[in-house]
Amino acid sequence: MNSIINYLDNVFANLPKTAEMEKLKQEMLSNMEDKYYELKEAGKTENEAIGIVISEFGNIDELLNELGIPLNETKSPERQLSEEEVNRFFQQTAKAMNLIGIGVFLCILGASLLVLFTELYDKGFLNEVTENTAALIGVAQLLLFIAIAVSLFIYSGQLLEKYKFIEKKGTFSLPLHLVKKLEMEKEAYQPIFFRSIIIGVSLCILSPVVLLVTIALNESATTYGVCVLLLLIAIATYLFIVSGAKKDAYEKLLREESYSIEKKQEEKVIGAFAAILWPLATAIFLFTGFVYENWHINWIIFPIAGLLMAMFSGAYTIMKKEN
User: Fold this and answer.
1) How many angstroms separate the CA atoms of 297 and 285, rounded?
2) Can you say how many angstroms the Cα of residue 43 is from the centroid of all Cα atoms in its chain?
3) Which one of 13, 25, 102, 147 counts the least CB within 10 Å of its CB?
């Protein structure tokens, strides 16, 4: 309930301080309180009730115009986004990040299937084909998955092209009632985000354990353990991308410190490092597997690459803060 009162205080802060305006404020507060308790009795949660109330009563511009009350404000050169535009931005962001997550998943899955094809041939399950044919099948499906992934990456970029202005400072603004609504939605989303991150991190930690268990039970089945390891990493990566997308969308719209200009520059540098590190790690993984047949141990390249990524990201962030 205090959120509604604070919201009204902010809405009326820049309006004329007259008896008529104070009366309007009290009438709106009374109506919002009635609606709030009505929603609570209907079984809505605190955040749901407040969000609905602010959404229904929040925009008072039309009411003030009808009453002929002037606004003591100057028009901002920024583009003001409507609630419909914000919802559309969230939908497009979710769709684009889901496609990116699927693309990354396919890349890792392709590497896993390549290892699997090689193992099946070595175990004699593909006697009807030659060794070169088995290798070509594995490489062909990997390249096919990569081609699909690249197409998804390009398409997802096109989906978000029209929203690039949101990343630039001073290009848009939001009505106060929409800001409050987004803040409450972001707060409600936090547990979902952390739950996804916890699951993803747990999968990354458990993936080598699966391999070690496979080795302990049957050393000849090590390659199958590698396939499972890569599959778990692929699922974890998908969760990281998709769950982080919505959180980033809230931060972009709310202009939080975590999405400041300095933060965006930091993300570009880290992203450039990742763009070099992961393809290099994949190339080393495939080279050592095909040339030296070290499939049983070269999986460790990916955990090492992950550690290097974390070390670089942490060190760069610390250095930027110190500067």
Assistant:
1) 10
2) 30
3) 13
Beta strands in 30-179 (DSSP E): 79-80, 172-173
- Decide if 108 contacts 230 (C-beta within 8 A): yes
| The token pair that represents 271 in the structure block | 């992203």
- What Cα–Cα distance (Å) separates residue 60 from each residue in 11, 18, 25, 54, 254? 9, 16, 10, 11, 21
Q: What is the DSSP letter of 74?
A: P
CA distances from 188 to 46, 174, 290, 317 (A): 10, 20, 48, 28
Burial class of 278 by CB neighbour count within 10 A (0 to 12, 13 to 18, 19+): middle
pTM score over 0.70 = no
| Main-chain dihedrals φ then ψ at residue 80, nearest 5 degrees | -90, 125
What is the tens place of the pLDDT at every residue in 131-152? 677 777 777 888 898 889 889 9
Look up residue 298 and give its two tokens.
Answer: 């070269």
Interacting residues of 67 by C-beta distance below 8 A, sequence separation 6+? 24
Q: Classify burial at 138, counting beta carbons within 10 Å of its beta carbon; exposed 0-12, middle 13-18, buried 19 or more.
A: buried
Per 3-state DSSP, the chain is made up of helix, strand and coil in percentages (nearest 5) of 80, 0, 15
- pLDDT tens profile 157-190: 888 888 887 776 667 778 777 888 888 888 899 9
DSSP symbols for 254-281: HT-GGGSHHHHHHHHHHHHHHHHHHHHH
Inter-residue long-range contacts of 314-323, CB under 8 Å, 24+ positions, other chains counted: 316/266, 316/269, 316/270, 317/266, 320/262, 320/266
Token pair of 150, please? 């690249």
Tokens standing for 42?
Answer: 């209907």
Tokens in use for 131? 């060794």
Q: Which residue has the tokens 């200009």?
A: 261
| Tokens standing for residue 270 | 């880290």
